[in-house]
């Protein structure tokens, strides 16, 4: 019972933080993106290098994630806290990120923490796999509004809920047994049904979340979130299986690490960003 309460409390707090930051927008959303980005990169570094990575390398990667996310937010004119950045421009962030890329590579000359090439490759993957999608979350907010970004999160949660409920009740056919034995095709289609139903509600009762998508485009949005959310979950499962770990960390009591919570988001965000770019360009 104590574990159930802990898991429930952590889950409610996690959702409340996301809803609050998304609705507040501006630098609150930027702060959420940076928080998820730096925690995720640090967690990924720890598990991908199996703990054999220096604190200096981890710090450099955290700084790199910070500059990448902030640079994207700056480029999109997302309100950043002036007391921290003042007149910082996109060029400043770009310069800082280039310095990070060079510093991270050169640092391996002086840091004796095992396979230098593997560590640098893991660092770059952490930037692309975690920090970049968090920056694109800021991009989605700038392209749309708080309701659309919140709607995306709700679709992710509904997809997970639908997949779990339907899969638990009637799941028989394995979706990807090699990677995630508990997932089933029935669960996937249950999650898809939940997402499409929510997309219909967005269209007919939520004014299309204020982004001007027609019915079919909104249904496409729901399908994109479900498919890429499932892939995001599977990708993280593949990473953990490859590295021989059950959870990415223990930051969130009852839920594991931060990557265990944002795994779907890491693929959904760039997919939705690309989808919006496509449907609004034609």
Structure explained in plain terms:
The protein is mostly helical and 282 residues long. It has helices at 2-24, 26-48, 55-75, 82-85, 90-107, 116-143, 146-170, 185-205, 215-243, 258-279; strands at 174-176, 180-184. Strands 1-2 form a two-stranded antiparallel sheet. β1 and β2 (180-184) form a beta hairpin. The longest helix is centred in the last third of the chain and has 29 residues, at 215-243. The protein is globular and about 60 Å long. The N and C termini lie far apart (53 Å). The mean pLDDT is 89.
Compact description:
The chain has 282 residues and is mostly helical. It is built from 10 helices and 2 strands; from the N terminus they run H-H-H-H-H-H-H-E-E-H-H-H. It has 2 domains: 1-143, no CATH class; 145-282, no CATH class.
């Amino acid at each position: 019972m104590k574990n159930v309460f802990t898991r429930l409390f952590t889950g409610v707090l996690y959702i409340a933080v996301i809803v609050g930051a998304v609705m507040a927008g501006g630098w609150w959303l930027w702060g959420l993106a940076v928080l998820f980005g730096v925690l995720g990169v640090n967690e990924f570094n720890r598990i991908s290098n199996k703990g054999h990575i220096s604190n200096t390398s981890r710090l450099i990667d955290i700084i790199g994630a910070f500059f990448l996310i902030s640079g994207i937010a700056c480029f999109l004119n997302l309100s950043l806290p002036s007391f921290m950045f003042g007149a910082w421009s996109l060029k400043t962030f770009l310069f800082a990120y280039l310095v990070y890329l060079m510093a991270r590579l050169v640092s391996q000359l002086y840091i004796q923490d095992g396979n230098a090439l593997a560590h640098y490759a893991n660092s770059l993957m952490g930037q692309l796999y975690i920090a970049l999608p968090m920056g694109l979350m800021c991009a989605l907010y700038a392209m749309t509004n708080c309701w659309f970004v919140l709607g995306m999160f709700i679709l992710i949660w509904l997809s997970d809920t639908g997949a779990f409920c339907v899969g638990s009740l009637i799941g028989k056919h394995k979706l990807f047994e090699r990677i995630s034995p508990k997932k089933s095709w029935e669960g996937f289609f249950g999650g898809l049904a939940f997402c499409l139903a929510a997309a219909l509600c967005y269209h007919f009762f939520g004014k299309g979340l204020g982004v001007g998508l027609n019915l079919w485009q909104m249904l496409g949005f729901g399908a994109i979130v479900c498919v890429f959310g499932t892939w995001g979950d599977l990708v993280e499962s593949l990473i953990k299986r490859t590295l021989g770990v059950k959870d990415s960390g223990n930051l969130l009591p009852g839920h594991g690490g931060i990557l265990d919570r944002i795994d779907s988001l890491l693929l959904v965000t760039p997919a939705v960003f690309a989808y919006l770019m496509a449907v609004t360009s034609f």
